[in-house]
Amino acid sequence: MFEVVSNEILAENLHKMVLVAPRIARARKAGQFVIVRLDQGEERIPLTIGDADQAAGTITLFIQAIGASTRKIVATPAGSFIRDVAGPLGKETHITNWGRVVCVGGGVGTAVLFPLVKALAEAGNEITTIIGGRSEKYVILADELGALSKNLIITTEDGSQGYKGFVTGPLSEILADPERVPQAVFAVGPVPMMKAVANITREPGIETIVSLNPIMIDGTGMCGGCRVQVGNQTKFACVDGPEFDAHLVDFDGLSDRLTSYRKEEAARHAAEGCKLAKEVAK
Amino acid sequence: MSNDLSPKERMAIDRVHMPELPADERNKNFEEVNLGLSGDQALSEAKRCLQCKTRNCVAGCPVGVSIPEFIDALACEDMPRAAQILRGDNALPAVCGRVCPQETQCEALCIRGKKGDAVAIGYLERYVADWAMQHPDRLLTEPTPEPTGKSVAVVGCGPAGLTAAGELARQGHKVTIFEALHDTGGVLRYGIPEFRLPKEIIDSEVAVLAQLGVTIECNVIIGKTLTVAELRSEFDAVFIANGAGLPTMLNIPGENLKGVYAANEFLTRVNLMEAGRREDSATPILQRDEVAVIGGGNTAMDCVRTAKRLGAKRAMIIYRRGEAEMPARVEEIKHAKEEGVEFIMLTAPLAIVATEDGWVKALRCQRMELGPADDSGRRRPQAIPDSEYDIPAGIVINAVGTNANPLLTATAPDLSLNKWGNVVTDDNGQTSIPGVFAGGDIVRGGATVILAMGDGKRAAASIDAYLKR
Description:
By secondary structure, chain A is α/β, with parallel strands linked by helices. Chain A contains nine helices and 16 strands.
């Protein structure tokens, strides 16, 4: 059992949860994740470790409540317990001093980006961070990322904050400027965003790394559900990743596999909704 | 009580038939297929054992169960003694009585089988183990071992790990099992379906270990949460039994389509996460009318019979050799056929064909014929030219095998591996790191529950000797 120390709402459906998990706090490195199962009968959900405090023996998770299982997880208040937390899983981010680095986060991917930015900053990189969100209220961790970055750029699709448009707008401008062009780009977010980033860094040949979040069960390489096509090889995101060379990832295949259970999930969503409605009616 | 029939009288008794659920009933649910022998059946079967002096059956058992002795106790209707003998030799008798391939091990060497049918050793083992579970108050109390003050870490809670833990605890060592998943049993729970091995059986066998003082910590991934080096410094010895790893890919086009599963994913969803079995299961599973399972081993049988139970109209085994070459247990093949599984033999997959929107539509195959024997002694399948055809399927399951899991070994640079990534051990089960032993699938590649248990038992003896040196 893993105690929830705190659970705060960062944005709509986005929670920051701190859990007591001393062994994971000690072992984890930037880029790694845990598998969380709230209780008996619940799903196993992979979540990136956002941060850790070795002295306190805690880890921080940023959780976007998008499905029935993640909604239940974020509904766990401080002082309660989560039954299973296993990790740290996946390979750690290869951190080095590239010089100039651009880090791009979209939606909850911004939270996944946070530990990378922190580790890259500690390694002495000059970081420009670009955060994208649908609107102002979906822009998260701006202060935290701003403190670690030389430049912070915010984009919103509706223009309610920062640049109006997508993260690729300011990224293209940076790539076109010889003074600012980076040695590496890190991008974490929705698959179409990562694909778009990969497409614009491919031609100038800038090393680009993305963190993938495919369907996963055990997280230890056993089930093979998280396989992605990288170049001409089949890779398992849980043991070979979750970070890969963006220029080799088959984003279309990944995107398609992510829809495998859309019908089943919609049915469960509806069922959970009904249950909730009945409880409210009582 | 006595068991003093003449050999002639023993020879006159016919082998018992295991009562089963009717095939057209059981292929719609996950109830256990084999119902177990009645008391009378068990007694009659026990009396078939000739109690021969050569004890060939024991040599055929990877954990060396004292087979004639426990059968004699059963024939004498001394159940507590039968249970004591069996449990003394085998940490998981109720599991072995259900999933061991007895027909190629103990029963294959049974003297009674030279004229007629072998003694149904597996059925009797199950009978005695189940009796023991149901009669805890009548079991002979095991003497509490004197604590040795030594501690052993066991990596993995599957058959090898559980067996080693039981043996070591009985020697008085303090054992902690580290399990990567959220529940115990390893492949026994995530891999083997409940219609072959009900979960209560695993729970009950694990409870016996807990009574012996074994601690089990779930959600600890050795190689990630803790390293082998950390375990080695905290414990007096380590036994690595973390099991099989990554699925072997087919390397044919279409393998990443929606609706293609590796066997472990399919089985884990259904067995461990209860997908498709409870209406409100949180973990989803795809269900289609036509399911093609590629492979001929026990895992393939488990997948295809599970698919049938989830409602597939056509559940098919696609295998490139013939039925005689299938590595699956005879009983699994028989049960699968009775349940309506189709066996499409001498057929090799070439590609998985997609619908316009990226779902599996069919398995493209070619017909094969058997040529001369290969290194494994089995006749090598060779393609028949121009024999390609499509088998319509909405789900394709790859059950051809697994490769070594790199998780633990990646952070244990001192551990010697073979070219396939499996851990190398000496005859005592010891690895290249003194005090660190290994067994089961991480050493063997894909093998059986009982071979893993044999490794666990042998390694436990070596660890005991190592700790007392």
